[in-house]
Design goal:
Elements (H helix, E strand, L loop, with lengths): L1 E6 L2 E6 L3 E5 L8 E11 L2 E4 L7 E11 L3 E7 L4 E7 L2 E11 L1
Length: 101
């Protein structure tokens, strides 16, 4: 069974046992999270969110972390204007435990 789940303004295609990195969730390591199910595909065909009243996707928080640093450099020619800063996006790593449709 494959499902499309939404969290953090993004959608992810998942199946049981997958690990995904999503936008940071305010949960502790080991806690369980229910994700919004948008679509499910299985041997019965494809069902969308309008037909999925009781669909659930349960995931467990594996870790919290930060992604690799990206450098943001702003520059204006002939003005001696330069600004350099870095950014590390926080994320939550989830393991998909079960998908029920």
């Amino acid at each position: 069974m494959i499902a499309v789940v939404a969290t953090g303004g993004k959608q992810y295609t998942v199946k049981e046992g997958d690990t995904i990195k999503v936008e940071k969730l305010d949960k502790q390591v080991g806690e369980k999270v229910n994700l919004d199910v948008m679509m499910i595909s299985d041997e019965n065909g494809v069902r969308t969110s309008s037909n999925l009243k009781a669909a659930k996707c349960e995931a467990q928080v594996l870790s919290q972390g930060k992604a690799d640093k990206i450098v943001v450099f702003k520059y204006k020619a002939k003005k001696n204007e330069r600004k350099k800063q870095g950014h590390r996006q926080p994320f939550t790593e989830l393991k998909i435990l079960s998908i029920k449709g």
